[in-house]
Amino acid sequence: MSKPTPLSGFPELLPAQRAIERSVIASLSRTFELHGFANIETRVVEPLDRLAKGGEIDKEIYVLRRLQAEDAADDTGLGMHFDLTVPFARYVLENSGHLQFPFRRFQIQPAWRGERPQEGRYRQFTQADVDIVGQGELGFHHDVEVMRVMVEALAALPIPPVSFQFNNRKLIQGFYRGLGIADVTEAIRVIDKLDKLPADQVARQLIERVGATPEQAQRCLDLATIRVADTSFVERVRALGVEDELLETGLAELAAVVEGCSGAGGERVGVEANLRIARGLDYYTGTVVEIYMTGYERLKSVGGGGRYDALADDGKTTYPGVGVSFGVSRTLLPLLADGVLVGSRSVPSAVLVAVTDEESRPASTDVAQRLRANGVPCEVAASPQKFGKQIRFAERRGIPYVWFLTDDGHEVKDIRSGEQATADPDTWTPPDVDLHPQILIKEQQ
Amino acid sequence: MSKPTPLSGFPELLPAQRAIERSVIASLSRTFELHGFANIETRVVEPLDRLAKGGEIDKEIYVLRRLQAEDAADDTGLGMHFDLTVPFARYVLENSGHLQFPFRRFQIQPAWRGERPQEGRYRQFTQADVDIVGQGELGFHHDVEVMRVMVEALAALPIPPVSFQFNNRKLIQGFYRGLGIADVTEAIRVIDKLDKLPADQVARQLIERVGATPEQAQRCLDLATIRVADTSFVERVRALGVEDELLETGLAELAAVVEGCSGAGGERVGVEANLRIARGLDYYTGTVVEIYMTGYERLKSVGGGGRYDALADDGKTTYPGVGVSFGVSRTLLPLLADGVLVGSRSVPSAVLVAVTDEESRPASTDVAQRLRANGVPCEVAASPQKFGKQIRFAERRGIPYVWFLTDDGHEVKDIRSGEQATADPDTWTPPDVDLHPQILIKEQQ
Q1: Residue A57 in contact with partner chain B when CB distance is under 8 A
Q2: CA distances (Å), origin B98, targets A382, B91, B165, B386
Q3: Contact yes or no for A63/A79 (Cβ under 8 A)
Q4: Which residues contact A173 (CB under 8 A, 6 or more apart)?
């Protein structure tokens, strides 16, 4: 074997970084479970006819074939999932007889897309999804609930502040309809370009492509520029003078979501109504959200989701859902690469038990077992080098304590301060902060 | 979408079963981390030239191609890993400059093999591997250490008793060499058939294929039938009258492993020297182990591993390793299918907070938040049905408690006993046993 090189788009983490990722995943899971969401894990493959729907994403799907299949074209008919929504919808249909609805689940797994790798976009990436799915119907209050869960979940993470930007498809559609715009879908598609084009060009396209009058176009732009951190958007939309029943429902729903999520994440999570968020064209039917991270706006959204009135459908029953997805890899990998998040050590060990000589290794192993009995992660030195070398062995791994067996008994040294004291392996524990690896958060570069 | 059917060889779990799998994975991780093993996760793909080595397994490798690649034969050159050893070896080589050796890692991930599915064998399956790898050299004491960690890890799991059956390749090779058998490799291959063939046929093959004399064949069989739960095998091997330096090293190593592991797992883990364990032909160079589960001998081993003097090699440096792998899917899926392990509930929620009417939902949500602040997982009822229906809603999910807001204040009902009492949402917590889903272990069928 020659020395291998990394594979573009398939990032891997060193142990200290992986400890951060695991801690983030554990924290997300903890919040989701406190809210009663059950974890599931789906297989990584789906039949191709469920994955490939003729959309843009199709060409990014990885298809599996057996290495020594007779014919290179002899595929298994299976592709790797490119998100967690498609497999979740399939899981719900397949197991509907065994699930209790509304079914509340979270799922934290990798997905795969054969796209061009860039910062925040990888060929293998981990996502964390929470969804609530109903059988036949699903009350609107679940929109507030699931969004609030993600607000709390991200507030608990050691990442820069994030902002949840909410909108509602009923609000947009109702507004356009009330305004007299015929092709609502095309209008949304054009307004979605506000990211890339100046407002006057967007207005011109509304007139040319959607057949809007200049006044209608202006009001579409007026709507899209409303962005507030409270429910004052309701009055501002009403001031635009459009009347529509669906618009009223959308306004009420969006107000409930903004109100229900505000403050749930403390100072570190912003909650806004941003009336130009559309989140693609199909699929969503009510609440929509995009999540952005302060200082990392270049990544575009680090998460998003919304309400879909037909997450799944087996011909007899429709399963409406509402959910939100957080890009674990998209968020963490740039933070790790930039040195914003640093792990305090590369091993779980809080203590290195020194070895005096090979003959007394069993005594050192015994100390380690007694420390472990109290939940202290530790390891025994690999070889009976001079104590100075063993201390450096610990230092290189970031292990804060070294334990010595001396003729007089036991001593433990904090190798950061140099402080050394006698200790009893049956009762000694380090301060809580030293028990497990810590995540050090540095000022952003 | 029509109702989907399960995909053979790609098992998935219902939420209550998945809770068991997660709890098992958490328990394994806890033990590994107490012993200072760092977790890593490798990407699911490897370049084909690292995976396909011309062996039997090659035809089971899944290869990736992009769905809309120009040509069906236009593969990515990537295949999915079929174990965790190949990616680990590659990871060590790739990151050798950033790792501290001996490097102690655990890895719990799926692997994929396109083989015919059967009980205990799946196309996607999860394994838990612990290994220690050195740079240039790795002391023998790490053999004892890593095996002991797995003994402790399995002892902590809610599974039937397991048995670790150890042998040592140096012992076998030294014995055969000392006996005067020229083709040691072929002799091991023949002895390995003792599982399937009667002893006299194996003896005949030793004579015919390996060129052994009848007396040599008999002594090979004598060695292979030694199986004891202590170090008395040393005397029994010596009694066979073969002398060889490598044999002596092997005897000493095997005795140290058996001694070091005995008792580490209490009553629930057996530790034996079983001198016919060979574990394949190549690769291993010292300690070898197979793990069997009581009552599930039909699964063959549920784990195994050993010492390999060249886990990886980059042309300049050799990386010896010792490790052991536990088949999480292979073990758990049959136990779940047989109803030996049953989850106590399908949701994390310990409490369902009832809703009196839609108007007072915020009051119920507030109670839930106060319970969560004390670490009590809970959920709010989906709709303000009659209380009897809300209790059945909880019952179907296995949620043990329902919380009511009455005119007089708060009351919590244990729906199993029917007992109901006033409670304060800021201080009430359920008994520990009810806080999280439990694993119920039934008598084996």
Answers
A1: no
A2: 18, 11, 35, 62
A3: yes
A4: A184, A246, A250
State the Cα–Cα distance between residues B289 and B307, nearest whole angstrom.
Answer: 9
Instruction: Report whether the peptide linkage leading into residue A87 is cis, meaning its omega lies within 30 degrees of zero.
Output: no
Is the CB of A4 less than 8 angstroms away from the CB of B50? yes
Backbone φ and ψ of B128, nearest 5°: -120, 115
Prediction ipTM score: 0.95
- Residue closest to A371 by CA, chosen among A437, A427, A415, A413: A427
Tokens of B33: 């981390």
Nearest CA to CA, how far is A166 from chain B (Å)? 21
User: Using alpha carbons only, what angle is made at residue B110 by residues B109 and B111, rounded to the nearest 5 degrees?
Assistant: 125
The size of the A-B interface in CB pairs under 8 A is: 250
The closest alpha carbon to A371, from A401, A391, A408, belongs to A401
DSSP A117-150: PBTTB-SEEEEEEEEEE-SS---THHHHHHHHHH
Identity at A6, one-letter amino acid code: P
Kindly state the DSSP code that residue A377 receives in the 8-state scheme: -
Contact B4 A50 (CB under 8 A): yes
Asked if the Cβ–Cβ distance from A43 to B382 is below 8 Å, we say no
Short-list A381, A406, A376, A410, CA closest to A395:
A381
Q: Minimal Cα–Cα distance from A168 to chain B, Å?
A: 22
Q: Does A396 touch chain B (CB under 8 A)?
A: yes
In this structure, the number of other CB atoms found within 10 A of the CB of residue A326 comes to 25
Closest-CA distance, B266 to chain A, in angstroms, reads 14
Query: In this structure, what DSSP letter does residue A300 have?
Result: -
Question: Omega before A102 cis (within 30°)?
Answer: yes
Residues making up chain A, counted from first to last: 445
Q: What chain A residue is nearest to B259 in terms of C-alpha separation?
A: A362
The whole-angstrom separation of Cα B122 and Cα B110 is 11
Question: Please, are residues A301 and A162 in contact by the beta-carbon 8 Å criterion?
Answer: no
Query: What are B378's strand-pairing partners?
Result: B351
Whether the CA torsion A120, A344, A7, A73 is positive or negative: it is: negative
Distance between CA atoms of residues B152 and A373, nearest Å: 12
What kind and span of H or E run contains B202?
A: helix B199-210
Q: How far apart are the first and last CA of chain B?
A: 38
For the record, the structure tokens of B233 come out as 């095998």
| pLDDT in 10s for each residue of chain B, 445 residues | 578 999 999 999 999 999 999 999 999 999 999 999 999 999 999 999 889 887 778 889 999 988 766 555 556 889 999 999 999 999 999 999 999 999 999 999 999 999 888 888 999 999 999 999 999 999 999 999 999 999 999 999 999 999 999 999 999 999 999 999 988 889 988 998 888 899 999 999 999 999 999 999 999 999 999 999 999 999 999 999 999 999 999 999 999 999 999 999 999 999 999 999 988 756 899 999 999 999 999 998 999 999 999 889 999 999 999 999 999 999 999 999 999 999 999 999 999 999 999 999 999 999 999 999 999 999 999 999 999 999 999 999 999 999 999 888 999 999 999 999 999 999 999 999 999 999 999 865 4
Nearest CA-CA partner of B290 in B326, B257, B254, B330: B326
Asked if A26 has any chain B CB less than 8 Å from its own CB, the reply is no
- Sign, CA dihedral B351-B357-B361-B362, equals negative
Residues of A in contact with B40 (CB under 8 A): 12-13, 15, 18
Chain A nearest CA to B6, separation (Å): 7
Q: Is A200 left (phi over 0), alpha (psi -120 to 50) or beta?
A: alpha
Q: Which of B377, B366, B423 lies closest to B400 in space, CA to CA?
A: B377
| Domains along the sequence of chain A with CATH | 161-294 (3.30.930.10), 351-441 (3.40.50.800)
Structure tokens at A56: 């843009």
A135 lies within 8 A of chain B by CB: no
